[in-house]
Amino acid sequence: MRRADQITGILMLVFSLAVMEGARRMPPSGTFGPGAGFLPFWLGVAMAALSIILLVNATREPALAGGRAPFPTGWKLLPIVETIGGLAAFILLLETLGFLLSIALLTAFLLRVVEREGWLTTLTVSVANAGALYTIFKVMLGVSLPKNTFGF
Amino acid sequence: MNLFDNIMMGFGVALSAQNLLFCFIGTLYGTLIGVLPGIGPVVGVAILIPVTFGLNATTAIITMAGVYYGAMYGGSTTSILINVPGESASVVTCLDGYEMAKKGRAAPALGMAALASFIAGTLAVILLTFIAPPLANVALSFGPPEYFALAFMGLTLVTSLAGDSMVKGLMSGIFGLIVACVGVDAVSGEERFTFGFLSLLDGAGFISVAVGLFAVSEVLCNLEASMEQVFIKAKFSLRSLFPNLQDWKDSLAPILRCSFMAFFLGNLPGAGATIASFLGYAMEKKLSKHPEKFGTGVIQGVAAPEAANNAAAGGSMVPLLALGIPSSGTSAVLLGALMVHGLKPGPLLFQTSPEFVWGLIASMYIANVMLLILNLPLVGFWASLLRVPYKILMPIIVTISAVGVFTTDNNIFDMWIMFVFGIIGYLMRKLKFPAAPVVLALVLGPMVERTLRQSLTISHGDISIFFTRPISAVLIGIALISLCAPLLRGVMEWRKKVVEIS
């Protein structure tokens, strides 16, 4: 955690400097009080100060032998990466494939690939989930949902 | 209009068929959200906002308030039966609740949780009825500096109380404020941090951010551990649910104490149901004749936090309605919901929309009754839901979150925001940064900025305006003290060490 905090401190410091720079470029404070860049600039300053405190605190802590790394490593990271990838693919393909197919595919992907459920569970839950969500949102609530070229 | 007339008017509004129906739907859905691990009241309410667009504002908010309370009631079910809190305000209930279940006393534990929640919730609404209107009156004389000070204090208290590290809590809060700056600046019309994305002109959208930070990140975190649930089998006949006389003797005083303590704690902008439940448990443990028994399965260990979290939820409605300042992540989302429905929260709400305010307050009484009924006889049903393996629930949670976020604006971009904040939320959890301050800051951000700029315009750039006005000075003083508290503690410990050595 100590190393992670140090890295976070540095990254957030860079982030704060970016925010401050972005705020600096906005029009200066005018006659009607502080301008658009006022608050973002000072928020950037506060964040920078806190990042430095975080960095200093983390560095001053004695390094614990055998301290746990906060993130999972190796194959444990796989389900997380798969889920993130699956969700991104879903968002990208939603308007092409239409609502029903996309939801069904995402559910199936999450069940089969990420969680290694059997085919029967995967199929039944995917179809049921897509159908239920369609019924609730499209039929009962009247929300307009994306359709593919085949109309569903 | 005196208090009695207002309450009668409120019940007139709340007892309409539509409002009763939606109150019931809200409490039912809220209990479900509370029972299911992996999805909490913040996400539950946030997803509901676009769904309730078609309803009028009063019905919509009644539904969402019902969800808030329902989650407080439902969360204890999983805590007691499978040692997994349904949401953060039920974490403490696991301690004694699960121990009681292991000893075969799951049914009275569940019963006491529901009854304690009912007593506390009803007490909270009664206190709310008496406290909110005068507070709103006082707040009518608030100007921009007072509002800024109030929001500043609220944010500071939340960020300093959240999690273990104040520095990280503050960073989360400031991050939320920075995200709140994204979009078009209301005063100058200047585009800020939009990077050319048209969809960001209106800001990042707090629903997408909240769902990403809470639901998606929770799913990602849960993927690491295998969510095997050890389910305690228990019989749930109606009679077995009722605690016996000894249980009541042990629990009644804790329930009453915790209700009052938690209600007033919930009033403070910044302290919510979760903190209240921890404090309630700690307080009862200190006051008990047998503190060592806490943690082994004593009924007060269930009654105290359950009373506390419900009373705090009720108490958090006071600053929300009277001042327009939320107390916690969930009430921040409720505040957002009020704004989305065109209501301006704040002291003027009592003047401009009395039917809404009193209708909402009356419906809280009704919600507590409904929830008692839902949670006592139906507890067997809720318990059976827990048999659905998390592996099946997870994809359903992901898809519901994605669709819910999409329906806010029918814009794919909102799902990308949810996606990005899901990853950010995961990183934050792993690095021990609390997420609630981000949502709170995001919802309060526009108000913070507006009142800050108004105050500085009034004072011609002089910051002392916040310190020369008495109310604002007191509020900012409290905020600064809470920021300095760890430093003071550190200094006192250092002095103790010096004394010991010499």
Describe this structure in words.
- The complex is a heterodimer of chains A (152) and B (502).
- By secondary structure, chain A is mainly alpha-helical.
- Chain A has helices at residues 2-24, 38-60, 78-97, 99-114, 119-140.
- By secondary structure, chain B is mostly helical.
- Chain B is built from 22 helices and two strands.
- In chain B, a hairpin with a 6-residue loop joins strand 1 (183-184) and strand 2.
- In chain B, helix 4 packs parallel to helix 16 (354-375), helix 6 runs antiparallel to helix 16 and helix 11 (245-267) runs parallel beside helix 13.
- The longest helix of chain B has 34 residues, at 106-139.
- At the A-B interface, helix 1, helix 2, helix 3, helix 4 and helix 5 of A face helix 8, helix 9, helix 18, helix 19 and helix 20 of B.
Short key terms for the protein model shown above:
heterodimer; A: 152 residues; mainly alpha; 68% helix; B: 502 residues; two-stranded antiparallel ribbon; 74% helix
Query: What is the N-to-C succession of helices and strands of chain A?
Result: HHHHH
- How many strands in all of chain B? 2
SS-based class of chain A: mainly alpha
Shape annotation of chain B: globular
- Based on Cα principal axes, name the global outline of chain A: flat
- How many structural units, i.e. domains of chain A? 2
Count all strands of chain A and give the number: 0
Structural class of chain B: mainly alpha
The tally of domains of chain B stands at 1
Low-confidence stretches of chain B: none
The H/E string of chain B reads HHHHHHHHEEHHHHHHHHHHHHHH
Mean pLDDT of chain A: 82
Computed over alpha carbons, the radius of gyration of chain A is 24 Å
| Beta fraction of chain A | under 5%
The low-pLDDT segments of chain A are none
Give the oligomer, counting copies of the same chain as homo and different chains as hetero: heterodimer
Q: Which percent range fits the helix content of chain A? A: 55-70%
State the end-to-end distance of chain B: 67 Å
Mind describing the biggest β-sheet of chain B? 2 strands, antiparallel
